[in-house]
Amino acid sequence: MSLKPKTNIELIKNGMFGENTIFRMAISLCPSIAVTNGMKNGVALGISVVFVQTMVNVTISAMRKFINPKIRIPIFMLVIAGYVTIIDLLMATYARPIYKEIGLYIQIIVAFASIFARAEVFASKNKVFSSMCDGLGMGIGFLLAMVVISFFRELLGKGALFGYPIVSGSPLLIMILPAGGFLAVGLLMGFFNWIDMRFFGGKGASGV
Amino acid sequence: MNIDFVKLFQLIVSSALINNFVFTMFLGLCIFFGVSKKMETAVGMSITFTMVMVVSAALSWVVYQFIMIPLQLTFLKIIIFIGIVAAFVQSADTIMKKVSPTMYYKLGVYLALITTNCIIIAVPLKNAGEHYNFFESMAFALGSGIGFGLALIIMASIREKLEVADVPRPFRGLPISFILAGLIALAFTGFSGLITL
According to the model, what pLDDT value does residue A110 have? Predict the structure, then answer.
């Protein structure tokens, strides 16, 4: 990340492409594979993450002057857990069928490295509004990644999108199996690296 | 309390192999890909992780049964469980540094990483959701720990070999590891249906 301050639009773009959580930073991978066997689940989790990420960034940023750096980790955790509980209870009430399938993964958002990392790296040092933009960008980046992965997996694995059949014929069953998730992410990551190297002269995702 | 040893054994086997957290539920991937580069770190991580897993599952179970249910605080379980795990990891870190510095140098690094592992929070949540009794929760935690260790060690041994392989440039590093994990996961589907709980 460059040191010069970025405009808010740049912050959002950075979250969506430059530091895309899944394809570039390779963190918060767990749900990216678990819930992407259908567009509906992928989008639902993506939207929850946008909400949690933005709200956490705003809250941490607003409280940044009062948080003692020594105990910041438990405080960040509590703030994140609070918002995750809100979205968890909301989903349980208003989106019952989806919640039954991805409920565990909604609760797991609490252990997301990406949310914690943004709170630590960005929100605890920046103004409220730019933190909001950063959170929004990061969240949307995650949502985009979920949409791309689940698009391919549902189309190839079930021949459908959002549960509506699109193509007939025998689908590639492996894509909706657990193994297919790993394969899809691996291939897509490789593909994005290739684009980056070929057209932008980048070095590709460094990864872990 | 009568203990059903058959059920406990089934729980351990099923959580380690059939419902392996990494390959069938996709949890703990960040750490799975992070520390599986070398065999040595993989072994260290598996040992530390299994120990922390069992202890924090026990603590969470006690708190859930004796504090949260009587006080009807179960809707706060996410906040409370993550608090328990974070507090336990922090205190284990401090105690280990004082009591056994040699062990701390070997395993201490992994302790800090564990808080961001999804499995550590998923196991207490699952224990609470399935209404396991104390011994069943322990068996489930132990099995999950072993399963994670197994996955980590398999992956590390393959990735060490991969270092010398000629992988196409865009796929170097993480992408090829994902494809590898996909193939291992395919092998693990062979276990499904072995035990039905």
Answer: 78
What value of ipTM does the predicted structure carry? 0.71
Closest partner residue to A33 among B26, B87, B125, by Cβ? B26
Residue-wise pLDDT for B153-174, tens only, equals: 998 888 888 888 888 877 877 7
Q: Model confidence at A7, in pLDDT bands (50, 70, 90)?
A: confident
Q: Where are the alpha helices (DSSP H) in chain B?
A: 5-13, 21-24, 29-34, 39-63, 77-99, 101-114, 118-130, 134-162, 174-188
How many domains are there within chain A? 1
Q: What is the pLDDT of residues B110-161, one digit of tens each?
A: 777 777 677 888 888 888 888 888 888 999 999 999 999 998 899 888 888 8
Which member of A31, A104, A185 has the closest CB to residue B178?
A185
Chain B: residue nearest A27 by CA?
B30
Establish if A200 belongs to a structural domain.
no
Which residue does chain A place closest to B116, by CA atoms?
A: A111
CB pairs under 8 A between A and B: 135
Domain that holds residue A30: 9-149
Cβ–Cβ gap A189/B175 under 8 Å: yes
CB contact under 8 A, A89 and B30: no
Q: Provide the chain B residues 33-62 that lie in CB contact (below 8 A) with chain A.
A: 33-34
The answer to whether position A197 is within a domain reads: no
> Percent of chain B at pLDDT above 90?
3
Residue B99, pLDDT above cutoff 70: yes
Identify whether A46 is part of a domain.
yes
Q: How far apart are CA B113 and CA B45, in angstroms?
A: 9
Please name every residue paired with A164 in a beta bridge, in sequence order, or none if there are none. A161
In a domain, A192, yes or no: no
pLDDT digits (tens, 9 = 90+) for B17-59: 888 888 877 777 777 877 777 888 888 888 888 888 899 899 9
Q: Are B189 and A185 in contact (CB < 8 Å)? A: no
